[in-house]
Amino acid sequence: MGSHHTDDHRDDLPTPSTAAGRDGLAAILARPERSVIAVDFDGTLAPIVADPEQARAHPDAVPALAALAPRVASVAVITGRPAGVAVRHGGFAGVPGLEHLVVLGHYGAERWDAVTGTVRAPAPHPGVAAVRSELPGVLHERGLWHDTYVEEKGRAVAVHTRRAADPQGAFEALRAPLTALAARHGLVVEPGRMVLELRPPGVDKGVALTEYVREVGAESVLYAGDDLGDLPAFSAVEKLRLDGVPGVLVCSGSAEVPELADRADLVVTGPAEVSALLANLARHVSR
Fold it and tell me: Are residues 69 and 97 in contact, defined by beta-carbon separation less than 8 angstroms?
């Protein structure tokens, strides 16, 4: 179940390039019911697109997750997006096999459980509203209002430069002024792939992943991501390994974020290959 691909090589699990990654995969295969499989959304399950509102999970992603989820301790999607948006764009609600899926949105500040179908969340940081009102002025001042896309995330605001004539130039031009704007209101800037996100400090995917692994009592973990915002989750897995919880780090797409690819145990080319990897894992743990 899961993948439309029938190529023979896709039925073989790739071998992680590191000893720690091989240990992590072996631990997952040995006791899948004690493992957490955690994945980022944009760029990992969903192809990156110029307009974030148009992002949708790869067609193979949900079938692969649904095949895998009943055989492991838990599957979690950890994303910078609001949890409800990720659920809608991913098509995760009401899917047989994903009855216990958890989506940790806003880097773990929000949580959606498939069991209840509801989102739990604390009150937003007041700095986000202040930044939102000042942002147009900052962009107009630099002549970048029409070259950027401001994504409203509720608990954060993201400025995308992918649609500018010179995306990298716009990104670099905005880095310092947006960092200053964020700092004035007690927020931090998280840079990503042609995006600068202004959000509250102390919330990241590493904290979310570590807390979730502890909550589930997992004995092994796999984390797949594609961007700088996934580095804290990579660090969390590296620390969990030191604490005796084996783990596998997967990088989705290697060209744009070498920092992630360099630390990964497995590098795949994007959401289609992430989906194939999860589907293969499901087949292996069901034998």
Answer: yes
Confidence of residue 207 (pLDDT cuts 50, 70, 90): very high
Segment 206-230 shows an average pLDDT of: 96
Cα separations in angstroms, 169 against 142, 144, 175, 257: 12, 11, 10, 17
DSSP-based three-state secondary structure for 97: coil
Closest CA to 75 of 92, 60, 88: 92
Structure tokens at 262: 């360099």
Using CB atoms within 10 A of its CB, is residue 166 exposed (0-12), middle (13-18) or buried (19+)?
exposed
| C-alpha span between 78 and 214 (Å, rounded) | 15
In total, the chain counts a number of residues equal to: 287
Classified as helix, coil or strand, 235 is: helix
Q: What is the DSSP string of 126-192?
A: HHHHHHHHHHHHHHHHTT-TTT-EEEE-SS-EEEE-TTSSSHHHHHHHHHHHHHHHHHHTT-EEEEE
Dihedral of CA atoms 66, 69, 74, 79 in degrees, nearest 10, equals -30
Asked whether 135 and 196 are in contact (CB, 8 A), the reply is no
Which residues are CB-neighbours of 264 under 8 A, at least 6 positions away?
Answer: 21, 234, 249, 250, 251
Round to whole Å and give the CA distance between 222 and 199: 26
Residues 135-160 as b/e (b if ≥16 CB within 10 A, e otherwise) read beebbeeeebeebbbebebbbbbbbb
Q: Can you tell me the distance from the alpha carbon of 16 to that of 3, in angstroms, rounded to the nearest whole number?
A: 21
> What is the mean pLDDT of the segment spanning 214-219?
97
